[in-house]
Design goal:
Elements lengths: L1 H6 L11 E6 L13 H20 L3 E6 L2 E2 L9 E12 L2 E11 L6 E14 L5 E2 L9 H24 L18 E2 H4 L1 E6 L13 H20 L2 E12 L7 E12 L4 E11 L9 E13 L5 E2 L4 E2 L3 H24 L1
Helix pairs in contact: 2-5
Length: 339
């Protein structure tokens, strides 16, 4: 029901602070399968959401969270990526922005829905500390509905953070009860390094979250290609956490490896860490972002095919696999509930 409402909105239904952008997808945006890179779409989503948040607050704004997001349909080179973003909810110190994405055929004007994302932003003071944000005041029945749905998502995020911070079960209980056949984690894991440049930052001097999400998706894609030895595409972004913000000149290290394989998908964990690239006396490394990316393998006809199974070689890998299996079952239940 919510998706039908989103598909039928026009600008007159949106708050004054809403933002929109169109992006012509060119070959530089494509992955080897010919689809637009999932990281390109994530970058566009974070950027247009940032514009809507800044229009509302007129303050220094940074991204702190993006909810789990499915890629419902592919986008291709030559199509127009059309994005609209508007505020749906505000807590005392955070804003939720909804971003809706369509792919448009430039010749016919036909559109199809590809993504709906909910991105959370906060305002920072001159010391980089979160401050209160201007409230979102619903003015119509539709805005009231969005606000209430946003409040429920806000409460769910708080519950998830509490669950994830709870003590983990003893890893000995997993004791190598899963796959011993297939490809290993080490065969496909990658580490990428990149220095963040002025072109990567927003007006507040912080690196755009979308820039980092694109790098994360690229690292996960490399892992998926190594494992599957085929064309692959991003199917979902899961459990993104933004733990600290990155500044110009910092060295970013991105580590990615497979945590779980089902018959037709891979779950890949991507972690972003940062350190100063300019200060030889500064050796502190900070955790910046992490997320799970779900990838599928495509056959030559661009149809989803089975993926090679993951071979587990340690108790720690067995624990990751079991936790990944639980997330996989949760995703299946969520898809069934939305049908």
């Amino acid at each position: 029901a919510e998706l039908k409402i989103l598909m039928n909105i026009d600008d007159s239904s949106l708050p004054a602070s809403h933002a929109e952008t169109d992006h012509l997808c060119v070959p530089a945006d494509a992955n080897p399968a010919g689809n637009v890179h999932g990281g390109t779409i994530l970058n566009l989503i974070e950027f247009v959401g940032y514009l809507a948040a800044v229009r509302h607050t007129r303050k220094r704004t940074v991204t702190v969270n993006m909810d789990n997001m499915d890629f419902h349909a592919p986008m291709y080179v030559g199509e127009l990526a059309c994005l609209k973003a508007w505020l749906t909810f505000a807590s005392p110190r955070s804003l939720e922005v909804c971003v809706h994405v369509w792919a448009e055929n430039c010749m016919t004007g036909a559109r199809r829905h590809t993504n709906t994302a909910y991105v959370t932003y906060v305002n920072l003071d001159e010391n980089g500390e979160p401050v209160e944000v201007p409230p979102v005041v619903p003015g119509t029945e539709l805005e009231t509905q969005w606000f209430e749905q946003g409040r429920l998502r806000y409460e769910q995020r708080k519950r998830l953070r509490e669950e994830e911070n709870a003590p983990r079960a003893d890893i000995e209980k997993f004791n190598m009860v899963v796959n011993r056949l297939g490809k290993t984690v080490q065969e496909s894991q990658v580490e990428l390094l990149q220095v963040m440049l002025p072109s990567d930052n927003n007006s507040g001097g912080v690196i755009h979250g979308g820039v980092l999400m694109k790098l994360m998706d690229n690292a996960a894609g490399v892992v998926a290609v190594r494992h599957c030895q085929s064309n692959v595409v991003t199917a979902r972004l899961d459990r993104l956490h933004i733990r600290s913000h990155i500044k110009i000149g910092e060295l970013v290290k991105i580590r990615a490896y497979i945590t779980f394989s089902s018959a037709k998908s891979l779950e890949i964990f991507v972690q972003v860490q940062a350190e100063s690239a300019l200060d030889s006396f500064q050796t502190h490394t900070k955790d910046a972002m992490d997320a799970y990316f779900i990838f599928v393998s495509l056959n030559p006809e661009r149809r989803i095919q089975d993926v090679p199974q993951l071979k587990v070689e340690s108790i720690e890998e067995a624990r990751r696999f079991e936790e990944g299996r639980k997330r996989y079952e949760e995703r299946k239940k969520g898809r069934s509930a939305n049908r």
